[in-house]
Amino acid sequence: MSEEHSEEPQSKHEGEQDTPQEGDRQASPAEEASAREEDAQEQPVAPRAARRAGPAGEEVRDVTPRERKRMNRRELLKLVPVIAIGAFAIPKLQEPLLMQGLHFSDWASGKLFGRHRLAQTFRNNDVVPFQRFPYNYYDVADPEVDLDKWTLTVEGRVQRPGDYKLEQIQAFPKVVQNTRHVCVEGWDVIGNFGGTRASEFLRWIGADTGARFLEVECVDEYYESIDMATVLHPQTLFCYEMYGNPLDRGHGAPLRLQMPTKLGYKQAKYLDTIRVTNVLQADKRGYWEDQGYSWYGGL
What we know:
Blueprint: H1 29-42, E1 52-53, E2 59-60, H2 65-70, H3 73-77, H4 80-88, H5 91-112, E3 152-156, E4 162-164, H6 166-170, E5 175-182, E6 188-197, H7 198-204, E7 213-218, E8 223-227, H8 228-231, E9 237-242, E10 245-246, E11 256-258, E12 271-277
Parallel strand pairs: 3-12
Antiparallel strand pairs: 1-2, 3-4, 5-6, 6-9, 7-8, 7-12, 9-10, 9-11
């Protein structure tokens, strides 16, 4: 049988060196470096995307479609603050974004509101003295209501519209509660309030309690609108007393709204007209709301 011989060169023994052949010339170090560069350029490129570097030298890569599908909702929400900051940097987008944010806040607040969830009430010794309860008004401290001739006008989706005297409102069982009044300006105070539940008065006049809103107009030309769920809340009062005495002129005599589930600007004073409705008047959603405040104004 014939033997197959390997064509591979035999390995050299340790210490053995190549000897230059006749006619060969020893390459200089510079020439050897140049040759290595040429060999490297001739090597085939690896079959993968070239790496890109960011401004700090970090690797930048594209997200594959498969990876993109794996991004969940939580990962996407992490991007929201960044997107919002970038959008707010564009002046023409600032106001629309703010309005959309307010609308979302109002919607969410309405969904979270519990008609039977009570605001915190307090003991009598937690109530601040009457002299320390701030007077707060948007225009004048006293619009000079004629208390003897005053009536509350009732309009809209009710069976018995008309004008009602204070005595008719006071004929219902009086509710007295110690609750916190919170002002959007940053202060709050615990006070004592007395009055008629708005829900009882509305049902007595045959109001459509399935309607969406109660609009309110005041003697001092202030105006408001409130969601019906809040109006029917057991702590929402047509308030005619504070600290066991009739409302004084600075606090809204003879009648005001008292709603411990709302911020102070929703609790209109010097009531003149209420209207049960499904549609708010254009550009008259609320005095401060029409200037950019949240419409819901909840706590």
